[in-house]
Design brief:
heterodimer, A: 184 residues, alpha/beta, four-stranded mixed β-sheet, 6 helices, B: 248 residues, TIM Barrel, 12 strands, 27% strand
Chain lengths: 184, 248
Amino acid sequence: MSEVVIVDYGAGNTRSVQATLARLGHSSVVSADPAAIASAWYVVLPGVGSARSAMAHLGETGAATAITDRVSQDRPVLGICLGLQLALESSEEDGGVDGLGIIPGRVVRLSDERVPRLGWSIVDPWGEAYYFAHSYGAITADAVATAEGVTAAVSHGSFLGVQFHPEKSGRAGLAFLDQCLSLV
Amino acid sequence: MPLPRLIPCLDVAHGRVVKGVNFVGLRDVGDPVELAVHYSAGGADELVLLDITATPDDVATMTSVVRAVADVLDIPFTVGGGVRTVADASRIIESGADRVSLNSAAVVSPDLIQEIADRFGSQAVVVAIDSGAGVVHTHGGRTPTARRSVEWAREAAERGAGEILLTSIDHDGRRAGFDLTLTAEVRDAVGVPVIASGGAGNAQHVADALRVADAALVASIVHEDPAGLPGLRRAIESCGVHLRPWKE
């Protein structure tokens, strides 16, 4: 019960999130087990990979239902990058994919001059720079922060999603995660 | 557009960081984990670790270096050298790197770019191009090919590369500034970000590169004075190029 559950959807890099949580004094486990997701005090839905394979994996393991149930019970989930995008109703990625539908809205291909959008941007209104690495972005009324017109954070009930990578955003990212976990 | 990035590059040989001038003449300068932390604390926006030996014997060594770096680093890092298959890329990304950089292997097997991008996303695939006299060179810059660097950059981006790391062999190690003309040509040819590399001798050179590229790779100017990265950042800012807000 004391561990943070980092949701495993079979696509790679959960190591950095784990290391960052450890730096903040939180032990964590990488798991797709619905029971673990249901009982964890905090859940992180991390973000690497493609929307289609992530949703397929979350569906097969039962993690998708466990995450939506958690949010409907008002228990905290933090989505990072693709983890934010999966929470919306749909995504244009991979020819069109249904998301978890936690947040009203959709995910579209970025129309920036350069895609993928790679690097540090100042997030408004927070005034700190965080690291972004993405080709798709969320269009939603639940956006609470932006960076150069792109959705940087969304909040809906107990789900908080960030498009940037706090685990890769130096001291600002560490402070952000610390605040997320200390609010629980 | 995100802010321009300053990216120190660590050349790794058999698990140690070495410094290369014109791709030859190496000397041992340190431990990759220590240097990665040092540069992160000094205001690096990102790091590149390049396994310049990448013999089969080095795979296990490099994998453990990547894991150790991932466990302590709080900024993104790219790993290049010895990535020849999707399995190589998976091993590196699963060990904690954010992105892999492909060089000769992408020239030999261009499909590799799309295969890795399909699995991990375009943002995880950097294609490194070593350019000399306008043409792509492979095998550590030693072997010229018939391909024009600009054309190869365009093709790599179309195949799914999320960024181009462009090194001018002609400028590398000379400390007389980046190849701004080539960098601008490549950047005009692609819709993905471009990292300029080769030729940094001072802050003005880096600032000039950051006006035409999305990021600049620096090696010897920071390796010889690692304490000087914060100073380099300030000097770049005073040349009128704004990096991310950062305090020592």
